[in-house]
Structures are given as structure tokens and as C-alpha cells.
Design a protein that fits this description.
The protein is of the alpha/beta class. 22% of the residues lie in helices and 21% in strands.
Length: 150
């Protein structure tokens, strides 16, 4: 790809694992908001992704997705991201990464992040009061360089 193309296929990794310690162990992907689960809202945000991997426990979804658990188990968001990328069936130049507990994220936000990531290692959405990235788009070319040794 030599120029930004909004329709360039990308993959998505949804981070839905972890211990849910702030929720007393309740699976955050199953929490309902407006009659829909957090996972359903997250899947809406990546509706235009060619492939979706959910890093978390398998549950019923309306859209076909691949479920995996991070390795090592409860290894944190980096382990989840790398496990999710490893589970992709078709390599893509870019992967969108979002946490499952972001029900107000929209597809246009991921499109804008993909545009900002073009020609760079990635792009990150952060908020003024949020200590961690809210969403990211990363180029998959760099993943082998950041992977810890196994």
C-alpha cells in the first residue's frame, strides 16, 4: 500500500480477558448496557474489520470471531495483544486493538486511527483522564521486534 486507503482490510483484536478484579471477577464482556453486552458493542466498533480475534473466554456472538486466551494466562494486555495477533488466520498490514469495555467507540474512530497509523508504527487514542490507551491501531510489521523471547 503506497497511499492511505480507508478500505484497506485490517484485522481487530478485542481484549476481553484478565481477572476482572475491579469487578469482583465478573466477566466484563457480558455486562449489559442498553440491552446489549459490552462484547456486542465492541464488535460494532470493528464492524469493518476483515477478521476479529477476541482474547477472552468464548461466548455466543452474532458475528463469527475467533476466541483465544492470552498466553501466559492473565499475562496482561501485551500478552493478550500478541496472542490475538498470533491467532489471526490471515495476516493484515494493520491490526486495531480495543478493550471490550469501551461501548461508545465507533467504527469511524478506528478508521481515523488507521489513517493516522499509515506510514508509522501505529496510532493511539488516549483520553485526558485515562492512564492507558483507549484504542490503538498498530502495524503488524513491528510485532516480531517487540515480542519477548519465549
Amino acid at each position: 500500500m503506497t497511499a492511505w486507503d480507508e478500505w484497506e482490510p485490517y484485522a481487530a483484536v478485542l481484549l476481553a480477558g484478565g481477572r476482572s478484579s475491579r469487578l469482583d471477577g465478573i466477566d466484563k464482556s457480558g455486562i449489559e448496557l442498553g440491552g446489549r453486552t459490552m462484547l456486542a458493542w465492541a464488535l460494532d466498533a470493528v464492524v469493518d474489520a476483515m477478521e476479529v480475534v477476541v482474547v477472552g473466554d468464548p461466548v455466543h456472538t452474532e458475528r463469527p470471531v475467533t476466541f483465544v486466551r492470552e498466553d501466559p494466562r492473565f499475562g496482561g494486555p501485551t500478552a493478550a495483544l500478541l496472542t490475538g495477533v498470533d491467532a489471526l488466520l490471515t495476516p493484515r498490514a494493520y491490526v486495531g486493538v480495543i478493550a471490550v469495555d469501551m461501548p461508545f467507540l465507533r467504527p469511524r474512530t478506528l478508521s481515523r486511527l488507521r489513517e493516522a497509523a499509515f506510514g508509522h508504527d501505529g496510532a493511539v487514542l488516549v483520553g485526558p483522564d485515562v492512564p492507558r490507551p483507549e484504542a490503538l491501531v498498530l502495524t503488524t510489521q513491528r510485532h516480531p521486534h517487540v515480542r519477548p523471547p519465549r
